[in-house]
Specification:
Number of domains: 1
Number of helices: 2
Helix content: 10-25%
Structural class: alpha+beta
Number of strands: 6
Shape: globular
Largest sheet: 4 strands, antiparallel
Radius of gyration: 14 Å
Strand order of the largest sheet: 1-2-5-6
Strand content: 25-35%
């Protein structure tokens, strides 16, 4: 088995109200950068397991990938369309 696939997880396609998404789990050991979750607008720190999602239509590129807290991804249909950034939040 390929070591990168084990470390990064295997992508699956998930159907949501806004379309089909490729989704791949990122284990804590493979999480080495800080990302901002679009669901809650909070940081995903290195060493925190999370997931990455991108449109499954194949038309996008690497810039279309978004890193999400797993719980935020599961709850995204129950949230409003956009999270407002707090006044003191860093902008990435």
């Amino acid at each position: 088995m390929d070591a990168d696939r084990v470390r990064q997880g295997v992508a699956s396609v998930q159907q949501w109200t806004d379309g089909a998404w490729q989704v791949r789990g990122i284990g804590a050991g493979a999480s080495v950068k800080t990302y901002r979750c679009p669901g809650c607008d909070q940081e995903i720190r290195p060493g925190v397991a999370h997931l990455v999602a991108w449109p499954a239509d194949g038309l996008g590129d690497l810039t279309d990938r978004r890193h999400w807290h797993s719980g935020c991804w599961r709850a995204r249909d129950r949230r409003g369309p956009a999270v407002q950034r707090g006044r003191g939040s860093p902008r990435y």
